[in-house]
Amino acid sequence: MAPPFSRAEYAGRLRAVQTRMREAGLDALFLTDPANVNWLCGFDAWSFYVPQALLVEASGDQPVWMGRLMDAGAARFTTYLDDAHVLALPEDYVQRPDIHPGDWMAERLIERGLARAAIGYESDHYFLSPRWFAALGRGTPEARWIDADRLVNWARFVKSEAELAVMAEAAGIAGVAMRAAFDGLRPGIRQCDLMAEVVGAQIRGLPNAGGHLTAVYPLMLAGEKASTAHPMWDDSPLEADQTVAFELGGCRSRYNAGLARTVHIGRAPDRLIETAKAVEEGLEAVLAVLRAGVSAGEAHRAWRTVLDRRGLEKPSRIGYSIGVGYAPDWGERTVSLRPNDSTLLPENAVIHVMLGMWMDGWGMELSETVRIRTAGCEALTNFPRAVFETG
Question: Is the dihedral of CA 292, 296, 297, 303 positive or negative?
Answer without folding.
Answer: positive
